[in-house]
Amino acid sequence: MQIHDVRTRRSAEEFPRSEHLAWKIAELAADPVAVPPETEAMVINRIIDNAAVSAASVIRRPVTVAREQALAHRCARNGAKVFGVPGSVSPEWAAWANGVAVRELDFHDTFLAAEYSHPGDNIPALVAVAQHFDVRGADLIRGIATAYEVQIDLVKGICLHEHKIDHVAHLGPAVAAGLGTMLRLDPETIYNAVGQALHLTTATRQSRKGLISSWKAYAPAYAGKVAIEAVDRAMRGEGSPAPIWEGEDGVIAWLLSGPEHTYQVPLPAPGHPKRAILDSYTKEHSAEYQSQAPIDLARRLRERIGDLDQIATIVLHTSHHTHVVIGTGSNDPQKFDPDASRETLDHSVMYIFAVALQDGSWHHERSYAPERAHRPDTIDLWHKISTVEDPEWTRRYHSTDPAEKAFGARAVVTLKNGDVITDELAVADAHPLGARPFERDQYIAKFVELADGVVEDAEQKRFLATVGDLARIRPGGLDALNVLVDPRVLDKAPTIPSGIFS
Fold first, then answer.
1. Residue limits of the MmgE/PrpD N-terminal domain (predicted)?
2. Rounded Cα gap, residues 243 and 47, in angstroms
3. Tens digits of per-residue pLDDT, 253-276?
4. Which CATH class for the 2-279 domain?
5. pTM for the model
6. DSSP label at residue 281
7. Which fold has domain 289-425?
8. What is the distance between the alpha carbons of residues 410 and 226, in angstroms, rounded to a whole number?
């Protein structure tokens, strides 16, 4: 990896385009380096993972709204597929609908470093454009590998959340770069697309604060849609604000750490393979990633504690990120409100730990059901749980050593009789270093479980056979990546009022 220093530059300063971060990303995207077999295999795993969580979310209200919006934008030429249904729509609208389906349940892959990310959010936009352009399966794989590389490397180097900027500001440039690789665009075009995508996808973190709304699921899909439109304009010869990160009135100067700060962004050197997807990890449980290990820890503690009514307090010692985003350090009273939205409960480790401790399991629907959140014994236990930052967990969260990097917690359970029970877990069971790491069989099992009763068995088998042979799919064959949902299931989707689009 090459480490690039990225800082604000005055307009009068000599700063050649070859030194712009957007240009370096464009060169990376245009590099025709081969995709390693392990990267290819993980790309396939993550396409399966996205299909799994899309099947589970397909009739939820935000997904239904996005699907209906997309279906109002039928495409006259080629087009792309909307998850679950036949027919084709304009690719940016397919990316929108499918991106919402992927993100709605907070149940797909993650990478955490200086910033947060769900790099699987790249996939819907790239698949949509690949279907529209009749791209080969091998080029889709190349594009996804680039998108993951760019987003994860930006996440390693540039923190957004400390300045209350939403993490999808790294997603827009990643999608643009991935599309550049997949479509074999020149660096000039990719450079302009990356700049436009970043410029148009910076927004505040309010979508993940307080009473969290469905926009949490829409935000990544919107970034993918915007990136597709940015690439389209760049392909037509349009430029972009530049230098977008380093400019005197650019992102670093006014949205991030300011003119005095230098960020260090790692990128593969020319000719080096793109392997960043291997640093990311998926979820076994439908909950914010920093609660994955606490869920597994709660399941393990359950037997040791025995009678949960004897609990006086539970303190989770954890990282700064976990404490302030999903813990009591957020100072969000909504995180203790049984009437809070699913999105809010998903970002309350206190609620999640209480339910996992009581049930010994976690389910993407039952664990969030209103009647579950309103159980008196759950509310009582929920309010006994708090978080504190532990500097050692914060250090491990930011470690660049994969063997040391951790997103877990130490639970200190004090009983009413004064006894104290402690236990800790560094990484989730499904993590590559966890007790039960996810490999191809686990991804397939997740798909089969979540598609049960939603997608007919024959359609499940057809999709899995197709995606398993992705590298050999010829132009025009990527429509087969769409999973058709049983129409009787779609009939159960909520009725949505009309909007602007017919």
1. 19-263
2. 33
3. 999 999 999 999 999 999 999 999
4. mainly alpha
5. 0.93
6. B
7. 60s Ribosomal Protein L30; Chain: A; (3.30.1330)
8. 41
